[in-house]
Known about the structure:
Chain A has about 325 residues and is of the alpha/beta class.
Amino acid sequence: MQEPIFSLLDVERTYELRRPGWLNRAPRQLKALDGVRLDLQRGDTLALVGESGSGKSTLIRLMLGLEPASDGRVLYGQRDLAQLDAEEKKRFAREVAFIYQNARGSMNPRMRIADILAEPIRLHRLCAESAIAERLAALLDRVGLPAGLLQRFPSELSGGQIRRVAIARALAAEPQVIMADESVAGLDVSVQAQVLNLLRDLCRESGITLVFITHDLGVASYLCEKIAVLYLGRIVEQGPTDAILNTPRHPYTRALLQAFPRFDMPLKASLSGEIPSPVDLPKGCRFAGRCPEAQAACRESDPALTAFDAERQVACLFPVAGAQ
Amino acid sequence: MDCAVALTTQAANMPVSEEPLLDVRDFSLRRGQAVVLDGVSLALQPGETLGLIGESGAGKSTLALALIGLLRAPEVQLEGSLRFRGTELTRLKEADYRRLRGNKIGLIFQDATAALNPCFTVGQQIAEPLKRHLGLSKWDRRERAAELMHSVGIPEPRLRLDAYPHELSGGMQQRVMIAIALACNPELLLADEPTSALDVTIQAQIMELILDRVRELNSSAIFVLHDLALGAQVCDRIAVMYAGQIVEEGPSERVLAAPLHPYTRGLKSCVVELGSRTLVPIPGQVPPLDAMPAGCRFAPRCPKAKAICGEQRPRAEIRDGRQVACWFID
Ligand SMILES: Nc1ncnc2c1ncn2[C@@H]1O[C@H](COP(=O)(O)OP(=O)(O)OP(=O)(O)O)[C@@H](O)[C@H]1O
Ligand SMILES: Nc1ncnc2c1ncn2[C@@H]1O[C@H](COP(=O)(O)OP(=O)(O)O)[C@@H](O)[C@H]1O
Ligand code: SF4
Ligand code: SF4
Ligand SMILES: [Mg+2]
Ligand SMILES: [Mg+2]
């Protein structure tokens, strides 16, 4: 097996919550990520799923090097992100692109689309100034937008168009990895379908490695060949998409699947309660408070992510059995 | 549930002796020159749930706002009729509307954070309609507010009566909105994307809760939804809206399982299901309000469009127990 393009080794991220007026008290610790292990191979398409507050965005910020891990290591290739030198940082910025959740908000409203797209090309000196126009036309074509949009401002584009521009900007520096945070949330189904097809084709054609955050398991399954499910700062299950959909092994994964609206099944509130705050994590399994399968042992020992079979890892003392 | 199907099939075929709870007839709403709602007709029987679906800008929220009298002349111009329990709403005075709103008609909006007042405790906000419409005493209001919070699944309601909205999670705020909407046992509940901002797990809890309470009260409900599969799960009837018109309306199992209108079919082929292999987007975009096509508004995007579609607007026809507005129904 080739070496992974990204490796996360027992990554933790804690935030200190300072309460005003409590000068002498130790600040409380919020553990947004707690022992995350993950290997990403070149060409992988991985979806990170989980409820709001499970730590998806924090994980991606760490993988982008926007924030340091509080403990553990994030490796890009063989190199620790925290130890990159200036030259390596530049290369990382070219090779790993990010599509923001709020596409419109991430663009300068006073810049024309042409300049927004040319910025990364100029920054990384990817071609001569005279060749930029040609390159921009090719980029727009690749995301299915007419070249006429180049002279417009972000406010003059629709929701679907602006997300395509965001994708085009991510592609501009010809990255090897694209990370995207909820990039289709809030879009109409038809526009969502267009954007998903575009991303899927791009990954298939050019072998780009994709990390896609979504709380929508349908979107995850359409776009990505692998799924990692997060709960309260830890990956609780990961494996190939089909296996996760057909035989979820973690009770949380199963509950997420059961709550997903389907034409052929009645509504099912599969979980009671809400995701608790990561401030005072309970002893034992972090899912025990909501888990329909919880037993006494679950409140005592904290299950680590371990191999369930050749392709799947699960963090549960009593994984869901059977073929379903 | 079975009787709802029987009722609606009957409603489609012959005049019903009993008057529907809500009867919308040829209702149009204009903002200046722009026709935002164009000849909308639908009827809702007591105890029925209806889902409004369609792309952004179709006019779903506009219809809901018009129904509760929050969009009125001179801001907009209304035509046609909106009858609720036999009362013509388009001619109702504001004072009479106030007696309906939050009382006989309850409301739930998508964004609870924006809809709740940050300066008042949730207890005060739930008590408000109890005071205004039911005239309960201060003590009774507090008791009833705690009961309502309990009934919408808020743990330890008495402790939370004095909480401010920002101290609650998004899901809990949405539960507070539901408690307010149901405070006076409304006969009709309007919910505009009540769970779009929530996780599927919380969405399922909240939807189950709304349905349970609506059934207990034998009320009717109109949901604005963007998720078709959720519509299939929670609605007896579905009305598909496109560019201000209803293009298909009928029992949800028929409309969603075997859609007849090309737009409904297009929408369905865009839905991401678990394990979907292909998605087929609808080409093009919803036309802007000031550039609506003359004939069928869907014609520029329709795979089945013929010459007549560009010239004449198709009328709604009854077909297979539903209304469909298309020249070429299979
Ligand atoms: N205050 C307003 N002033 C002018 N036009 C408006 C206003 N509110 C809505 N519109 C227009 O009326 C049309 C219908 O809007 P409406 O909000 O009812 O759509 P919707 O179906 O609820 O869409 P969404 O799914 O995005 O909520 C749209 O073209 C919209 O731009
Ligand atoms: N900068 C921060 N300071 C304090 N807490 C944070 C910060 N960023 C995230 N968190 C907390 O970390 C947890 C995980 O958040 P996040 O990664 O945004 O989850 P997701 O993207 O899955 O919704 C949440 O409890 C969130 O409130
Ligand atoms: S360890 Fe126990 S509580 Fe945790 S997920 Fe497994 S069965 Fe549920
Ligand atoms: S009337 Fe014509 S354009 Fe309109 S939906 Fe039917 S076939 Fe398509
Ligand atoms: Mg996030
Ligand atoms: Mg709306």
